[in-house]
Amino acid sequence: MFKKILIANRGEIACRVAATARRMGIQTVAVYSHADIHAKHVALCDEAIAIGPAEARQSYLKIDHIIAAAKAKGAEAIHPGYGFLSENEAFAAACEAAGLVFIGPPASAIRAMGSKSAAKALMETAAVPLVPGYHGEQQESDFLQQQADGIGYPVLLKASAGGGGKGMRIVERSEDFAAALASCKREAINSFGDDKVLVEKYLLKPRHIEIQVFADTQGHCVYLFERDCSVQRRHQKVLEEAPAPGMTAERRRAMGEAAVAAALAVGYVGAGTVEFIVHQDGSFYFMEMNTRLQVEHPVTEMITGTDLVEWQLRVAAGERLPLLQDELTLEGHAIEARIYAENPEKGFLPSTGDLLHLRLPEAVQFMNGDVRIDAGVREGDAISPFYDPMIAKLIVRGKDRSQALARMRQALAAVEIVGPSTNVGFLSRLIQSAPFAQADLDTGLIERHHTALFPPAQALPLAVLALAAGKLILNPATRIQDPWSATSGWRMNGHYTRMLNFHDATQDESDDTQLSLTYQSNGALLRCGHAEALLTQLRAVGDRLHLLMDETQVEGHVLRVADTFHVFYQGSHWQLNWRDPIAHAGETEAEGGRLTAPMPGKIIALLVAVGASVEKGAPLLIMEAMKMEHTIHAPTEGTVAELLYAVGDQVAEGAQLLSFASAEA
C-alpha cells in the first residue's frame, strides 16, 4: 500500500480522499491555488503545496505543476478526484512517465471513453444500443446542421469531451441551430479545451440511469448496481438515488452486464460509471462512460456498505477487488441532494460570497449512519467565482424509499446557510413534490413542473415577522430595574405603538410589509393586515428565540446581518430587510437605464454595438462564470447607449455592464 499520495483536486472530494487515506494510514499532500490557501482540504491533509493563481487553468489544470508538487513532496501516487484533470489522458500518461501511480484507469481507457464520439463508435461495434445521432469527426457548422435536420428536432448538442452538463444545448428548431452550436462550442473550449460536439436525437421524458463499475489489474470487473440521476437542471444532476425506483432484477442485470462489458472492452481499471438514457418502457441506450469516481458515488456506498475511495486506493496499489460480483449485496435506499450556492428563482444562477453562517444536520462523515454530509467548506469560507459552487452533499439512507424521503425532508429542514443564495428551499420543495415522491422521474421533471416548484411569493407569516421583530427588540442585557431606562415600550399611562417595516429580500419587486407592535400591560399586540396575535412571552434560549403568541409556542433561529434578519422557522429560510427609518432617510430610487452583472464573471462576447436599436429580449452580451455561459438580454425595446466593458474583461457582481435607453422612456 502507498505511504503518501497527492490529491490533485479541491473541495469535498479532496476532503473525502484525505479522510479515507488517514483511516488507512496513508499520508496526504494537498495542492491549492492562491484562492484556496485557507481551504478545508488544505487543513485536512498532512502537507500542502501551492500550485498557482486562482484561475483553474493556471493551477488545478496545470499538469506540470501538479507532477512537480508530487515529486517535491515524495508522493508515490496521485488521486485526481473528479473534475479538473480526472479524465485527462495526458495527465494519466504524465503520471506514468514521472514514475507516479495514477489512481484511476490507464490512459488508453481514458482515451477510448474520454471522447463521447469515439466511445459511441466503440459501443456500436460492441452492439450496445445507441441513441440516433451523429458522432463523427466533421465539425463544419453547415454539415452539423444538415445532420440535425435529418435526425429531426429536438436535438441535443453535446461537447464530445464534456461532462457535468457543460457544453450541452437542446435545440428545438432548425433556425436556432447555428446560435446554439456557437454557444456550445465556446463553452466546450473554455471548459475542456476541445470544441468538438456530437448531435443526438433528444428523447422526450427519458430517465438517466448509470451503473457503477469497478475493475482491478487482475481481470476482475464488477457492477455495484445502479443510480437514478434523472432529476436535473441545465443538464446537471440535482438529486440522485440508489437503487433506481422501479428497477427490475432482470433489467438491473442486463444493464450491469452491459456496463461491465463496456469497461472490459477498453481494459478498464478502477472506478468508472457507464451512463444510460432509459425509456419509460425500460429500454436503454448507452450515453457515455465517465472514467472517474462520480459526485453521486455516496448513494452507492450507502446501499452496498462499501468505501469506493478505499477501493480505488487498494486497486491502484495492485490489490484484488475487495468483493466480487456474487459477494455484493444491495440493502435499503439512499438519496443525495447537492446543496449549491445558486439562485433557483433566477434560473439557477451561481451565487458567490462568504458563508457567514453554516449549520448542517448532525451526521456521520461516511457510511456508518443514516445521514451523511460530504462538505468541502466551513463557516467563514468563501464561495468564489473560480470553481464549482457546491457547498455540500447531503446523503440519507432508509430501509426503503419512503423512509429515505422522510429523512431527507428532516435533514434539509435542519440546514441553515447565510451568505450566498442557496438551493435549499428549492430542494425541499422538490423532495416533497408529487412527481418525485411518486417516483415519476425523468430528466425534464423540473421544467415540466416549474409552476409547482416555483410558486408565487406568499405573504410573510405573522410568526416569521414576530421572530424578526423579537430579535430586533430583545434586550440581551440583564433586567433593568429603572423603568425610565427600559426599551420595552412601557408607558405609565396609555399604550405605545411601534411600526416596523420589513421587505422580503428574496422578492425584488414586492411591497414592504408593515408590522405594528402595541405595548400593553399584558404583552404586545401584533398586527399585520387582518392578522393579529398577542405576544405574551419573548425569550432567548441559546441561539434560538421562543415566543408565546395567543398561547401558541413559536420557536425559531434568527440571525441578524446588518439590517437583514435571517429567520429559520419550520424548515424554511426567510430573509427580511428591516427598513430603518433613520438609516434610510433621504435615499432615492436607483438610477434607471442600467444593466448589471448578476454574478462575478468574464465578458466573452459583445453581441451589439453602441447605438444599436434592439427588441425586448434581444441578447446584448454573454458572460462566463463558473464555466457556464450567461446571456444578458434587453429588458425592453430600446437603444444601447454605452458599452462599459470589452471582451475578456472581468466584472464584479452588480457592476454596470452597459447603459440602455428604453424606448418607453
Q: Can you put this structure into words, describing what you see?
A:
This protein has 665 residues and is of the alpha+beta class. β28 and β29 form a beta hairpin. α4 runs antiparallel to α5 and α12 packs antiparallel against α13. The N and C termini lie far apart (72 Å).
Characteristics:
665 residues, alpha+beta, Rossmann fold, Dna Ligase, domain 1, D-amino Acid Aminotransferase, Chain A, domain 1, 17 helices, 33% strand
Largest sheet: 8 strands, antiparallel, barrel
The number of helices is 17
Q: Structural class of the secondary elements?
A: alpha+beta
Count of beta strands: 41
Radius of gyration: 27 Å
Describe this structure in a few short sentences:
This protein is α+β, with helices and mostly antiparallel strands. The chain is 25% helix and 33% strand. It has 6 domains: 100 residues, Rossmann fold (3-Layer(aba) Sandwich); 71 residues, ATP-grasp fold, A domain (Dna Ligase, domain 1, 2-Layer Sandwich); 128 residues, D-amino Acid Aminotransferase, Chain A, domain 1; 123 residues, ATP-grasp fold, B domain (D-amino Acid Aminotransferase, Chain A, domain 1); 100 residues, Glycoprotein, Type 4 Pilin (2-Layer Sandwich); 69 residues, RNA polymerase II/Efflux pump adaptor protein, barrel-sandwich hybrid domain (OB fold (Dihydrolipoamide Acetyltransferase, E2P)).
What's the SSE blueprint?
Elements: E1 4-7, H1 11-23, E2 27-33, H2 40-44, E3 47-52, H3 63-73, E4 77-79, H4 89-97, E5 101-102, H5 107-114, H6 116-125, E6 133-134, H7 141-151, E7 155-159, E8 168-171, H8 177-192, E9 197-201, E10 207-215, E11 221-228, E12 232-233, E13 236-237, E14 239-242, H9 249-265, E15 270-278, E16 284-290, H10 297-304, H11 308-316, E17 333-340, E18 342-343, E19 349-350, E20 353-354, E21 357-359, E22 371-375, E23 382-383, E24 390-398, H12 401-413, E25 416-418, H13 424-432, H14 434-437, H15 445-448, H16 450-453, H17 462-473, E26 496-504, E27 513-520, E28 523-528, E29 531-541, E30 544-549, E31 552-561, E32 564-569, E33 572-578, E34 594-596, E35 601-606, E36 613-614, E37 619-625, E38 628-633, E39 638-643, E40 650-651, E41 656-662
Parallel strand pairs: 1-2, 1-4, 2-3, 4-5
Antiparallel strand pairs: 6-9, 7-8, 7-9, 10-11, 10-15, 12-13, 14-17, 15-16, 17-24, 18-19, 20-23, 21-25, 22-24, 26-27, 26-33, 27-28, 28-29, 29-30, 30-31, 31-32, 32-33, 34-41, 35-37, 35-40, 36-39, 37-38, 39-41
Helix pairs in contact: 4-5, 12-13
